[in-house]
Input
Amino acid sequence: MAPQCEMGVGGVGGMGGMPGLTISDIHSLKRNEALEILARISRVEKKTFPTNEAFPFSEDLWRKKPNTRVLYAIRAKGSHSDLIAYAVYVRQKGVALLHKICVTEPNRRQGVGQEVLSYIQQRLRKEGCQYIQLWVDQAREPAHALYLRIGFEEREVIPDYYAPGRTGIKMVLDLERDG
Output
């Protein structure tokens, strides 16, 4: 069963934690709960990313993809909880490919992305992973700045990677060096 983390309450966290923020893996959920979270993630994904970049959040991610992890962050509000972020990565031996990290619009620039990335780093270090690799659109300056701030290094720049006029930057975080 995958770990769950209550940020700011002595759990795994980044810079001091965020009270009320819980980060979990959909694989720790029962089917119906996982499908409900995936549906919520899918709605955010479709609002946030262009159609050609939207990730397909289907039941297969919960059921059939053992190397793929879907993490989500929620914040409790009364009797319900708000989805505030999610991330998808794939482990391939000592490397994790971070395919997606998204913080919902009203929760951006509050440290949520850094908390989720810190959680991912700690989890992957415990699993013996050596590197995290990702691609970021050069135009997504806040995301690019966050990755640089936490230690990712630029390794490659490819013009038109995402679409004509949209440059992709490959970034890598060495978990052994930065641990």
